[in-house]
Amino acid sequence: MSDITSSAYVRQDLLTERPAPVTTTGFIGLVRTRLFNSPTNILLTIVGALLLWFTIIPAVKFLMVDAVWTGKDRTACLTENAGFAVGACWPYIQAKLPQLIYGFYPEAERWRVNLTLALSVVLLVPLLIPRLPSKGLNAGLFFFAFPVVAFFLLHGGGIKGFGLSWTAGLLQLFDDSIIGAGQVLLSLSKTSAIAPLLWGVGNLILPVGVAISWLIFPLVWLRDQIQGAGQPVWTDVAITTVVVSLIAFALGGGVRTGWRALASSIAAFVAIAAVIKLMGLDQGGLPIVTTNLWGGLLVTLVVSVTGIVTSLPIGIALALGRRSTIPLIRIFSIAFIEFWRGVPLITVLFFATYMLPLFLPGNFTVDGLVRALIGIALFTGAYQAENVRGGLAAIPRGQGEAAAALGLSWWKTTSLIVLPQALRHVIPNLVNSFISLFKDTSLVSIVALFDLLGSLRASFSDPKWSTPSTAFTGFAFAGIIYFIFCFGMSRYSLFVEHRLNAHRRN
Question: What is the chain's mean pLDDT, rounded?
């Protein structure tokens, strides 16, 4: 037995690995296993190669090989002057680039647009990098502080009051609307067939408006006193700071645990006061540039970013409302979603631009760009609501039941357990809607807003650059810009999806 064991051959070392066959690796392996391994794949490979040959090669030839890169006017892009069949006329893009980016924004004030874009990049890039700290502060600055600063940078102007004056003005506008509605009903009751009903409703509404006016009278009186002071803005800021800080202190726990909320509130108002002083908002601010002078890439980015940022909270609220057990909230959410999803975006833009002012009080006006932004946000929010609702439906019922067993409230269950998982499931759908919205911003040109494509089409009318290749060059340039932004959003969404679904990797 021992002799047999001692004479048995036992390998002590492993054999060295041999390289894989050449026919299964590298380019040859790709060709054999993926491109020409079956008659169907052979046919698809040939068709794909022909498609690339007849699309990519002519595009590269037009944009690079046969392109004209320097010139002062259209003569440089003419075939008889260049000596060859001219492709893209890039001097035209160089000459019209300011118009394509800024539209008709005054040249002396374009530094404001550049500063706004720089601030957006500075705040957005750290927010997109997962490993960087202070995400809460960064998000607060980007989503709340930056829009206000960007508005005063791009539009200009100053402020005549602050929180207290704004609150009093909104309440007074609301009260005037109620009283006006009551007076209209009373006037209609004199000639209408349903006069008793209108008379009764009008007499019910008018006392409500009068009661509200008496309730808000101290606030309105204080507002008038502040406006008559020497420094109305800073007086209003001081009063608003004290009131809001005391409320935050009380809600934060009072003497025991409210000091942190008090310090945060005071720090926020100090930062607001610094911005007001730095931008001179208490003294009229920067020169006003009306939105009808905005255009180009500026309008495209403003419309798309505003729509993307505002549509997601609207969609989440509507999706949760559609699943609510309260009938009024559920019916309102369903009606809102189905109405906006059943109306084309062009109709929404026309309504917001031309018909909405007819429903507003005579002394209340809304800027044309703001009207378009509101319409796009509501329209996109209805679509996002269905995307979020699909993610909510994918969450197992046991998640909510387990949270209820642990004693969590509905708000904590939704915000900490259900909603994060639902949003993770629908990342592709959300980003797909964002990309679609970014491209649909070109529709604002039908309501006299010149986005990138609108400014591009306006530049075609310049006879100085009228050549056979001008239009093709302009649309190719616009297509490259749209592709860069849309491809960037697509790749980042894949990165986020891959990172959040690490537990599902094989």
Answer: 86
